[in-house]
Amino acid sequence: MQQLSERHHHYWRKNLRITSILLALWFFVTYVVGYYARELNFEFFGWPFSFWVASQGALIVYVLIIWFYARYMNKLDQEHGVAEEE
């Protein structure tokens, strides 16, 4: 079994922490906001706000989560010297 250095542990701790935070955000947007969307019954651009949350808002948040994770991991990879060659 290969021993991991402190640098590897630091890399994986940061990786797991950001993954956990982003998964919690995904869960919140998908289930919590979706569950309470019917109670958001005000008009937004002529449609009920719950429609926008379900059809557009969640998708925008998902794309932002992916963008942020890719950007964060590229910086983390460069910081720890494991970045891919381009």
Describe this structure in words.
The chain has 86 residues and is mainly alpha-helical. It has one domain. Helices cover 72% and strands 5% of the residues. The chain is built from 2 helices and 2 strands, in the order αββα. It has helices at residues 6-35, 49-80; strands at 43-44, 47-48. It has a two-stranded antiparallel ribbon. Strand 1 (43-44) and strand 2 form a beta hairpin. The longest helix has 32 residues, at 49-80. It is elongated and about 55 Å long. The two termini are 31 Å apart. The mean pLDDT is 85.
Tell me the β content: under 5%
Biggest sheet strand line-up: 1-2
Shape: elongated
- How many domain modules? 1
DSSP helix fraction: over 70%
Contiguous helical run count:
2
- The end-to-end span amounts to 31 Å
Question: What characterizes the major β-sheet?
Answer: 2 strands, antiparallel
- Topology as a string of helices (H) and strands (E): HEEH
What descriptors fit this protein?
elongated; 86 residues; single chain; mainly alpha; 2 helices
List the SSEs and their pairings:
Layout: H1 6-35, E1 43-44, E2 47-48, H2 49-80
Antiparallel strand pairs: 1-2
Summarize the structure.
Helix content is about 70%, strand content about 5%. The protein contains two helices and two strands, in the order αββα.
